[in-house]
Amino acid sequence: MSQTALLGSGPSSRGLSLRRVLLTQNLLTASVVGTILGLCAYWLGAHLDTTDNGDAGILLGYVVGSASFLLALGFGNDLLRYLRGRPVAVEVKSTGTQSWTRYFGISLDHKVVGVQFGVGVIFMFLVAGFQAMMIRTELLRPKPYLWPAGQYTALVGLHGLMMMFVATLVIVGPFGNYFVPVMIGAKRMAFPRLEALAFWLVPLAAIVLYSSIFQGSGGGFPTGWTGYANLADEARAGMDGYIVAFCFIGTAAVIAGINLLTTIFVLRAPGMSWSRLPIFAWAMVAVEFLSALAPPVLASTLIMVGMDRAVHSSFFLPSNGGSPYLYQEMFWFFGHPEVYIFAIPAFGIALEMLPVFARKPLFGYKIGVAGMVGLAMLSWFVWNHHIFTSGIAPGLRPFFMTATEFISIPTGIVFLNMLGTLWRAKISYRVPMLFVLAFFFNFLIGGLTGVFLSDVPLDTTLHGTFFVVGHFHYTIVGGEIFAMYAATYYWFPKITGKMLNERIGQIHFWTAFVFFNTTFMPFFALGFLGMPRRVPTYFPSLQGLNIFISINAYLFGLSNLIFIGNIIYSWAFVSERAPANPWNSRSLEWQLPTPIPPDNFERIPTIIAGPYEYGNPTALPVADFGASPAVAPSV
Description:
two-stranded antiparallel sheet
């Protein structure tokens, strides 16, 4: 029986009663149901609300509307079928059709969910990037002229928080979900429905976040992406959208983390020992421990903020015995592991691709694994460097300063893996490799400037300036986003069967690399010159440097349009099929036909060699597929 038939959304479900229609995977139905019930909940909450901003009604409307949307989309179907003794789909079966409509509903195929994540996250990236262009336009002049100061702060907050959403999921969502099960020889994810739920929480979070623009006078939230109390307690109604949206993204990260961890631990193919596990899968192991443990701290913190706003509790209200400083502690206890939720997948991407394009075994495989695990562990001991200027006890500063500087050791180990792999290699400078090398350069600058900020005296001087903005963008955009570019060019042929255009890709690389650096390198000079962040006003003497930055920011934004144009052109308008294994990779996903069958393998393979034995003429094939006709022989 097909997946769609089991979920009740196939052709046989048409024309049935309203009750059956509401139980189908119908995005339009789900949107209508969620909107109507959300508005009803808002009306009810507003009549029971005793706050000035109507927070109880807004929060109730968001929660009820979102839950109704998910149930109407079909997330309650399997439970109802189970309770009624009817069969429930466990695995994806090939139906012989590959309709594009499968991307607009619940799918149990991890590859479909990976594409959903990819398209959704890229769209959010473009929206947040457009907001960055708006910010740079405002900063062309030293005094506000497009938006009042309050609206500028809301714009910065929306841009920052949407980029946090993107950075949390931009590698784990598309590439982790799509390729990790194939890399380890599994037919599916451990919990396919949870995987689908993790994705559908993401567009809900984006919609809720941007609905905050229409809440209250001025719209948005005036706290920046960190949502500090007691600014959050005093904020207008748009703050409720911040609370719910961030909780949704945190929940999605927890679900994805538990799912990927379980898949890697339980569903590895025979012979896939830990010493043969692809380094990208090891990166997922390290990062998903953080994803499973850190976001619940954030969610509990935001729930307390919501209660302060809606039901007059006082967790963070100093007038009633609460502590705004407690919010900072709890937020950054999540927030610094979150930084490595961004960085570790990028390390995994770089280490996965370097042996392919260097045609050498990965240097120091086990040491690299230890480095990424060490990063994950040490990331729990550095959060207070974010609040050196917020009244932290002086006796704690040396510990957190030392712990922050120690984290450069496992980071340095991963860099040594990269350098060792490149040493005396015959490098193929294809577009994915160019972006990996750019990642190496950009993240190095981000790491070195982070050492400045780990030092208490320097951080006290630079913390509120554009130096921090430059450091953060070098580690996240210059690091993770450039790794995302590399992964897209590398795995696009396996996902779509089409190669991204190499010439356009080279134009994208050079424009992105050059204009990224000419945009963000001057941020460090602005920081030393005292330009404050999050405000639209600065010294008139810095206007010339800001104009230079804004022009280069526009050009960097243009490079991303080239990237999107390459994807659309190659996917929709190029008829030539990509080679089965254009990179001559040994990794397991490249040994399968393109497109990958819905259930990945007709027969689970037996892993007989590691994936990085390049340059060894006696190396065994990576896997034994037996007599299965559904898979290609190993390269």
